């Protein structure tokens, strides 16, 4: 990381290659067209490299954790900026299967499948509900932060989250009913 502070292009390339898959997964929760998501990831990495001097890590033993949180926030903010520019129109598309490959091989295959299924259900939500769900549930933003980032009221953020949860519950209930019918 020290090389990135002095704009060493080799270090930047290594950092980019190491975290590209993670960054794409973060962005893809907001932007569903693969080509657009890769553009957003690249834009976010440009922001990261330009503002690398702002990254602070007082605890060296937690460097990776702090770095990934900082990077994740920039990825999310860049994706939200893109959604705002495109009036939060729903994105359509999918990721190639290699994107879902887990770098930590200790993660169970079932967890990977469940994650893909959840993201597929979240993709079916209206854009405003999807944004609130992703930001609050998955990325840990407060309703106040969501309100400020999306230019909506706190009440609208809470309402959108409640409606997203209800729709996801309905999607899952429907899937369970279909599974019960198929098992008869």
Write structural notes for this entry.
This protein is mainly alpha-helical and 184 residues long. It has two domains: 1-96, RNA polymerase sigma factor, region 2, helix turn helix motif (Rna Polymerase Sigma Factor, Chain: A, Orthogonal Bundle); 106-184, Winged helix-like DNA-binding domain superfamily/Winged helix DNA-binding domain (Arc Repressor Mutant, subunit A), CATH 1.10.10. Helices cover 70% and strands 0% of the residues. Helix 3 (34-50) packs across helix 4 (63-85) and helix 6 crosses helix 8.
CATH names the topology of the largest domain as: Rna Polymerase Sigma Factor, Chain: A
Helix content class: 55-70%
Question: pLDDT average, as an integer?
Answer: 79
Give the name of the CATH superfamily of the largest domain.
RNA polymerase sigma factor, region 2, helix turn helix motif
Low-pLDDT runs: 89-100
What's the multimeric state?
single chain
- Please provide the count of β strands: 0
Helix-strand layout with pairing:
Blueprint: H1 2-5, H2 9-28, H3 34-50, H4 63-85, H5 109-123, H6 127-138, H7 143-150, H8 154-182
Helix pairs in contact: 2-3, 3-4, 6-8, 7-8
What attributes characterize this protein structure?
single chain; 184 residues; mainly alpha; Rna Polymerase Sigma Factor, Chain: A; Arc Repressor Mutant, subunit A
Task: Tell me briefly what this model is.
By secondary structure, the protein is mainly alpha-helical.
